[in-house]
Design goal:
There is one protein chain. The longest helix has 14 residues. A hairpin with a 5-residue loop joins β19 and β20. The protein is globular. With 332 residues, the chain is an alpha+beta fold. The two termini are 32 Å apart. The relative contact order is 0.19. The strands form 5 sheets. The chain has an 8-stranded antiparallel β-sheet with strand order 13-12-11-8-7-6-3-18, covered by helices on one side. Strands 14-1-2-15-16-17 form a 6-stranded antiparallel β-sheet, covered by helices on one side.
Length: 332
C-alpha cells in the first residue's frame, strides 16, 4: 500500500510513501544522460535526460519506484494487485514492460502531454525482468507543474485518466476513487454549520469540526480522500524549506506505523520511506521509517554525462539532537 501526491507551490514537488512489510534494498539512484537500456523488445533505448529517484538496482539496472527527470517530469508506480493486466507483445506497437516504463518515459518526455502522446502506440507487455523477478502489478502516476495523469493497464486495455486531485493510492481502480470523492463534498477546513435542524441548539465545540467524517483508516480509498483533503487545503509556503516541510506533513497524514496493519503473512505494513522531489531543482528529499531526519540529494551535484549509475544508500539509523544544560547540543 502506498500514496503518491503532486504538490504545487513556488516549485513543483512530487513524492510518495512506500508502504510494505519489508525492504527490497532500495537506494536513491541517479541515471545519467545517454544511459543505454537494452529493452525486452530487443531494441536499444538511450536516455536524453538524467533522472533521480528511488530504485532497487539489479544487474546494473535501476528498477525505479518513483523518479523525476531534469526537465521536471515525475512518475511513480504503485501497487495495483489483482487489477493490473499486461499483454503479450503486439506487432506494430511499442512494447514496453512495466519495469521499463519509468526510465523509458523520463528518459525522453518532458511533460505529461508528451506522456499521453507516447501512450498512443504503447503496449505494456508481460515480459518479466528475469525468471527470478516476476512483474510487479502496478499502476502509474505522471506529473509535471501543470497536471497529473494516472495510467492503468487492466483486462480491457490501457486507461489514461486526468487526475485533478494530484493523488494516487492503490486498489480500487482510479475511476472508483474519482467517484468516491463525491461522498466527502461536505468536508471543509472551516468549522461546521448546523445543517441538522434549526430547532436544535447545535454548535461547534472545537476547531476542525468541518472535517468530521474525514476517514482515518489506512485503506487505499481512505488514504486517497485524506491525502486529497490535506493537499488541497495545505498552505502554499514560499520558501524551499517551508514547502518541503509542508510536503512531509501532508504525507505523514497517510503514513503507516508498525503494528496496526497486519498482513496475511503475519508481517506489518509500514512506511519504509517517504520521498519528496523538487522536480524543478532536481533535489530528492527522503526520510525512512527508522530515521525522521530529512536527507537531501541533488541531481545537479554529480556528473550527469557520466556512464555509471550513481547510488546513495539510505540513511536508516535514527538521528536525534540531544540538548544539554549548557545550551549547546550534539547530533547522535
Amino acid at each position: 500500500m502506498c500514496t503518491a501526491i503532486s504538490y504545487h507551490s513556488q516549485s513543483h514537488y512530487f513524492g510518495r510513501t512506500l508502504d510494505l512489510e519489508f525492504s527490497y534494498g532500495e537506494q536513491v539512484v541517479i541515471t545519467p544522460r545517454n544511459r543505454v537500456f537494452l529493452l525486452k523488445n530487443g531494441s536499444v533505448f538511450r536516455t536524453a535526460y538524467a533522472m533521480i529517484g528511488m530504485a532497487t538496482v539489479m544487474e546494473d539496472y535501476p528498477l525505479y519506484y518513483e523518479a523525476a527527470n531534469e526537465a521536471g517530469l515525475a512518475a511513480a508506480g504503485l501497487n495495483f494487485v489483482g487489477n493490473a493486466v499486461y499483454q503479450a507483445p503486439k506487432e506494430g506497437m511499442e512494447n514496453i514492460t512495466p519495469f521499463e516504463l519509468i526510465p523509458w518515459m523520463l528518459g525522453q518526455a518532458t511533460t505529461v502531454q508528451e506522456v499521453r502522446s507516447l501512450f498512443a502506440n504503447l503496449n505494456l507487455s508481460n515480459q518479466p525482468f528475469s525468471a527470478q523477478v516476476p512483474l510487479a502489478q502496478l499502476h502509474f502516476m505522471f506529473s509535471d507543474r501543470r497536471e497529473s495523469l494516472v495510467v492503468e493497464a487492466t483486462a480491457d486495455g490501457i486507461h489514461l485518466y486526468d487526475n485533478p486531485y494530484h493523488v494516487m493510492t492503490n486498489n480500487p481502480p482510479f475511476a472508483y476513487h474519482r467517484w468516491n470523492m463525491n461522498n466527502y463534498l461536505n468536508l471543509s477546513p472551516r468549522n461546521g454549520e448546523n445543517q441538522f435542524s434549526q430547532a436544535y441548539p447545535l454548535s461547534n465545540y472545537g476547531v476542525g469540526m468541518g472535517a468530521l467524517g474525514l476517514p482515518g483508516d489506512v485503506s487505499s480509498s481512505s488514504r486517497f480522500v485524506r491525502a486529497a483533503f490535506h493537499l488541497t487545503n495545505a498552505v502554499k509556503e514560499e520558501t524551499e524549506v517551508g514547502c518541503v516541510t509542508q510536503f512531509f506533513h501532508i504525507m505523514d497524514s497517510v503514513s503507516m506505523m508498525k503494528g496496526p496493519t497486519l498482513t496475511e503473512q503475519g508481517a506489518y505494513d509500514i512506511t519504509q520511506y517517504t520521498s519528496c522531489i523538487n522536480t524543478e531543482q532536481g533535489i530528492y528529499y527522503y526520510k525512512t521509517y527508522g530515521n525522521n531526519q530529512i536527507t537531501a540529494i541533488s541531481l545537479h551535484e554529480v556528473d550527469l554525462n557520466g556512464k555509471q549509475l550513481i547510488v546513495f544508500p539510505l540513511r536508516k539509523e535514527q538521528s536525534i539532537y540531544y540538548e544539554h544544560s549548557t545550551g549547546s547540543g550534539m547530533d547522535a
